[in-house]
Amino acid sequence: MQVGIDSFAAFDDAGLSLNPSERLRRLVEQIEYADKIGLDVFGIGEHHRREFLDSAPTVILAAAAARTKRIRLTSAVTVLSAADPVRVFQEFATLDLLSQGRAEMVVGRGSSIEAFPLFGFKLEDYDSLFSEKLDLLLKIRDNNEHVYWSGKYRPRLNGQGIYPRPLQNPLPIWIGVGGTPESFVRAGLLGLPLMIAIIGGETHRFRPLIDLYRQAGMQAGYSAAQLKVGVHSLGYVAESTQEAVGDFYPGYARTMTDIGKERGWPKMTRESFDAQRGPQGALLVGNPDDVAEKIIRHSKALGSISRITFMMNPASLPHEKLMQATKLIGTRIAPALREVGEPQVKVL
């Protein structure tokens, strides 16, 4: 199982007092350290709002590429619905060349909607935009240099060359999903690896959706090995569970309550937080041994996962805490998960 970290390049403190330049410098330092201690992947999200600095994720990843050697560098996720697939491909192909073949992208429709009005798209076209642009992105990736294509939302392509070409062939493209069955089926039919954002609830409840993905993929002729599943989870580790909870909960509760005001969620309570930390809950917060054991249980419950990434930003943690957690994930959790290996995939 691959183990990594995702970041939205959020400010370290809730007051947004940290200098943005310093925050980005520290983020690249964290990625460099993750590479040094042997983590498999680091992802940068995409948002277009004041509290995040990740509106141009490929720029951050390119800075990290120059200071790393092994770690894979990915988006988490690219909001493809509001982007130009030609430009997205060019940016990640360039990142792939800079990193000597370590670039990936996770593409999705995005759970935050600010990109749609910012770039002149209608929210009611949410799904059709993504479907059309994913089709074009895959054609650019798979059909060599010259693409003939026409659609509704972008000018047609009449065989123009699209450059540069990446070092990897094919450039890895994952589909990022939430909880919509149609999204799981679409990824399966295309034979693309799946990255699931499980940020709440009980993780095992995603099993029927994952089975839909695998069934669709196998019926389309793809092998079980091609139908990889990754999970993006909110989480944080410290030397003791007490320390992890004490560090994580205050900022997490504040962030989730604020997001809840926008999305109609109830206020985050300590009772709800503790339930999410329980054996079936989605949060990966605790000491390294307990968190590793929980990930193994989740993998079995979901029929095998190939990748797990930790998202620590909601807790508004200082840089020192993020670095310490990165160390524990890389030196304690990742080795424990690699020793276990992946269970055999079974579709219910």
What features would you describe in this structure?
The structure is a single chain. Helix content is 43%, strand content 16%. With 348 residues, the protein is α/β, with parallel strands linked by helices. Strands 1, 2, 3, 4, 5, 8, 9, 10, 11 and 12 form a ten-stranded parallel β-sheet that branches. Helix 2 packs parallel to helix 3 (85-98). The protein is globular, with a radius of gyration of 19 Å. 45% of the residues are buried. The model has no long low-confidence stretch (mean pLDDT 93).
Keywords:
348 residues; alpha/beta; TIM Barrel; ten-stranded parallel β-sheet; two-stranded antiparallel sheet; globular
Q: Report Rg.
A: 19 Å
Spans of at least 5 consecutive residues whose pLDDT stays below 50 are none
**What composes the largest sheet?**
10 strands, parallel
CA-based shape: globular
Overall residue-averaged pLDDT value: 93
Number of strands: 12
Overall helicity:
40-55%
Named CATH topology of the domain at 1-13 and 193-210 and 222-348: TIM Barrel
Examine the secondary-structure arrangement and name the CATH architecture of the domain at 1-13 and 193-210 and 222-348.
Answer: Alpha-Beta Barrel
Helices and strands, in N-to-C order?
Answer: EHEHEEHEHHEEEHEHEHHEHEH
Query: CATH superfamily assignment of the domain at 1-13 and 193-210 and 222-348?
Result: Luciferase-like domain
Question: Helix/strand/pairing class, anyone?
Answer: alpha/beta
N-to-C terminal Cα separation, in Å? Answer: 21 Å
**CATH class type of the domain at 1-13 and 193-210 and 222-348:** Alpha Beta
Q: Tally the helices.
A: 11
**Percent of residues in beta strands:** 15-25%
